[in-house]
Predict the 3D structure of the following.
Amino acid sequence: MIDAEDEPVMGSIIIEVEAAPQGIMRVTLDADGPRRAWWTALLAHDDAVMGAAPSPEQMANLLVRGSIDCIRLSVPSLVVGGLTMRLEPGPNGNAQIVSSGPARFRRAEWDAAVHAQGCED
């Protein structure tokens, strides 16, 4: 029998990732929820890979895809699709890519990631 918390839910994801050699990545899967919780990680980007990107759009795509892979370490059920991306000023004077779109995930995995980081309300 599958617990209701183990059932995948549909929601929205917002990913903010700094375009810097070491950048902060923040994500929420509660984008439309009343208690938006953010999960944060410091990412080290491979300079050789980022430097080989043929365009800023390709670099943004690599940063977002890498961020999703990082999130899946804590939320393995995460499936995202149809992401939009835009460039904004970041928190440390760097550019950041903000990506958003629909997401499917197990609520229990997200709750555990938020709880482990101590970023819940």
Q: What stands out?
A: The mean pLDDT is 84. Residues 4-116 form one domain. Residues 59 and 65 are 10 Å apart (CA to CA). The chain has one domain: 4-116.
